UniProtKB/TrEMBL annotation:
Alphabetical list of Pfam families matching this protein: DUF3048
Chain segments carrying region Disordered: 213-233
Domain DUF3048: 95-232
InterPro entries, A to Z: DUF3048_N (IPR021416), YerB-like_sf (IPR023158)
Record keyword Iron present: no
Keyword annotations: Membrane, Transmembrane, Transmembrane helix
Transmembrane segments: 20-37
The protein, known as: DUF3048 domain-containing protein
SUPFAM superfamilies (alphabetical): YerB-like (SSF159774)
Length: 233
């Protein structure tokens, strides 16, 4: 019989059959016990798993220690190192195999701007950085940074920039790569340092290095100079 059939109303007092009340109480308690058991079982399972993993790790460490001890005592020979044999000619800058003869040519080092003023001039994202073999970030005066991007002789990149003027420390860093050094002008000491180092200078101001202007972003003129590797060789 439906539960409602066991409810007796007398005046304003409603009474429920005690047998049904006891039955529902037992069902509720059983559900709670079942849920608690599942939770405890899961916690025990996770604890066992962690213990097993910890035990395996400790066992591996013990084996390593025993092996090292045997090697030190001369009871066991150490494993011979294995070497991967590289084939072909490799780029000096990326390590990537280069079957062409361009690997013998000089790389290009381009001084790329990184200015980004909140609410003002911002050259990011720059072009060509992702294609460089090596990117060196250098802090300029005032905490502004610029990049020296090194492009191996095998790289063909059609848009790089915006590139900017040089300081003495930029040419000193680039000099280690024996590159074509590309920049847009320099300070007095910057030019002096380039001449003293004897670095092959490709300055857009002094030597008229090939470049073009991109004014599509609405930036001031000094932030619009771009070049490409094919024009620089």
């Amino acid at each position: 019989m439906h539960l409602l059939g066991k409810i007796i109303k007398r005046g304003n007092i409603i009474k429920i059959n005690n047998n049904y009340l006891l039955l529902y109480a037992l069902i509720f308690i059983s559900i709670l016990i079942l849920m608690t058991s599942c939770k405890v079982a899961k916690e025990v399972e996770e604890s066992i798993k962690l213990t097993e993993e910890s035990g395996v790790a400790e066992e591996i460490e013990i084996i390593k220690e025993i092996k090292i001890e045997k090697i030190l005592k001369g009871e066991e020979e150490p494993l011979e190192p294995t070497f991967e044999e590289l084939s072909g000619i490799r780029s000096l800058y990326s390590g990537v195999e280069d079957l062409s003869q361009t690997v013998k040519e000089r790389p290009i080092a381009i001084l790329i701007e990184n200015l980004c003023e909140p609410g003002g001039q911002c050259v990011r994202p720059q072009d060509g950085l992702a294609d460089a073999d090596i990117v060196i970030e250098v802090t300029d005066e005032g905490g502004i940074t610029r990049y020296i991007a090194i492009f191996g002789a095998d790289k063909i990149v059609n848009e790089i920039g915006p590139f900017r003027s040089s300081r003495p420390y930029y040419s000193e860093i680039a000099f280690g790569f024996d590159p074509l050094f590309v920049h847009f002008g320099a300070s007095g000491t910057g030019y002096e340092n380039i001449d003293n180092l004897g670095i092959l200078d490709l300055c857009a101001v002094r030597t008229k290095a090939p470049h073009e202007r991109d004014t599509s972003r609405g930036l001031d003129s000094e932030h619009t100079a771009y070049t490409k590797t094919t024009d620089l060789r």
